Amino acid sequence: MTDKENVALTRFVLSQRIEHILLLISFGMLCLTGLPQRFHDTGWAQWILSALGGIGSARVIHHIFAFMLAFEFLYHGIVIAYELLFARRRPLPMLPRRQDVRDGLRSVAYLSGLRREKPCFDRFDFRQKVEYWAMIWGLVLMGATGFILMFPVAVTRVLPGVFIPAAKVAHGYEAILAFLAIITWHLYNAHLASGAFPLDTSIFTGKISSKRMLEEHPLEYEGLAAGQSQATRKGSARKKRRHSASQVETL
Q1: What pLDDT score does 84 carry?
Q2: With bands split at pLDDT 50, 70 and 90, how would you rate the model's confidence at 88?
């Protein structure tokens, strides 16, 4: 593939990029305001809480961005429901399949030297799907426990009081797990381990080079190429029909 053939392809549309930015901002601010509350007896946490105006202000900011994240999660769910009901003729690319299990085993074999060729991936590979569904589970858990902690009096009218300390423990440990997963797993796999140098910025620009797509997502590239070829053939057929019709009219 020559440099001229290495064209930019659309990887993420504008709405997906906006979703990611909202997720990035809300998650970052939740970590900034929430983790210091979890470790309030440490020096660094007390410094951050002081800079935020005290623990009361930190809680207010935390709740604001919690609602922002909840809105993003709700919007994402509505988009998926719409695509499943009206806009998709095939399953969503993030849905797990048997092929993902095979790809995972083949990747382990490839990295272990037991297989010469690495598996070919479609739009999203098994690692990205694992991370996506882990995020969904984390958002559900954090949302449920956060709601309990935000409205403890209302919750204890329906549920036993033991749910309050249980929610506090689950919320805190899930927050630590999510923070560590983002700065290790996601940051490396999504931005550092790709073929882009020095960082993969496709989630911000929306573009990916055809060379990278061919290397990292060859099945998706083949599907796009096949779709373009089919569209070209249909366009040529329409031109031929119009040309034949014009010839008939001149007779």
Answers
A1: 81
A2: low
